[in-house]
Amino acid sequence: MAETFGFELVSPEKLLLSVQAEMVTVPGEAGDMGILPGHAPVISTLRLGVIEVSKATGGEERIFVAGGFAEMSNNKLTVLAEEAVPVAQIDRAKTEAKLKDAREDLADAKTDLARAKAQAAADKFQAMLDCAA
Predict the structure, then answer these.
(1) Please, are residues 81 and 9 in contact by the beta-carbon 8 Å criterion?
(2) Alpha-carbon distance 129 to 26, whole Å?
(3) Where are the beta strands (DSSP E) in the chain?
(4) Environment class of residue 113 by beta-carbon count within 10 Å: exposed (0-12), middle (13-18) or buried (19+)?
(5) Which H or E element spans position 123?
(6) What fold, for 5-87?
(7) Per-residue pLDDT for 133 more than 80?
(8) 45-96 per-position pLDDT tens digit
(9) Is the CB of residue 130 less than 8 Å from the CB of residue 66?
(10) How far apart are CA 45 and CA 88, in angstroms?
(11) Domain boundaries of the chain, sorted by first residue
């Protein structure tokens, strides 16, 4: 049996996943990081992207995250995500509608803050569609 480590994915609402993993890839701010058992301690902010989990029991999980933090220490990886959605649960039609709304908000924005919020929303919904393709 391959070596494993503990992995937990937590969103503001709840614990989304708690498993033994063989490998987890996280979308770090500086680039994707592959985490294996015995990985050196690390803390990283996350960008929009997909966490890929190779479970010890077999099978894989793909979860879209919109920001957060990842910490690896003592052979345990914990991800605190600002927002997380299993890729398989992304509804393309609803996400496309939200992207359209965000782009309209961006076009109508009157202040820098409104533009920044609308751009962030548009970027998130586009990233969700890209990973669900």
Answers:
(1) yes
(2) 18
(3) 5-10, 15-28, 31-35, 42-46, 49-55, 60-65, 68-73, 76-81, 84-86
(4) exposed
(5) helix 112-132
(6) ATP Synthase; domain 1 (2.60.15)
(7) no
(8) 999 999 999 998 889 999 999 999 999 999 999 999 999 999 999 999 999 9
(9) no
(10) 24
(11) 5-87, 90-132
